[in-house]
């Protein structure tokens, strides 16, 4: 399974939590050096806590589940 597929699987696990608050997350790119680019959409895109959600929620979960992930960036 590719790194991108593994990242998508983890995002599918966190997606319901984001959707419950009126938002979502879209995977844009996964580089070979472990940089994941996403876009927070809906309520998450304009939420003042989106950076915390991204770093302490999404990024932490991805790093925990997939050690190759180095950073998650929101575009």
Automatic annotation (TrEMBL):
It comes from the Bacteria. InterPro entries: FSCA_dom_sf, NIF_FeS_clus_asmbl_NifU_C. GO terms for molecular function: iron ion binding; iron-sulfur cluster binding; structural molecule activity. Residues 7-72 form the NIF system FeS cluster assembly NifU C-terminal domain. One of its GO terms (biological process) is iron-sulfur cluster assembly. It holds the Pfam family NifU. Transmembrane segments: none annotated. Belongs to the NifU family. This is Nitrogen-fixing NifU domain protein.
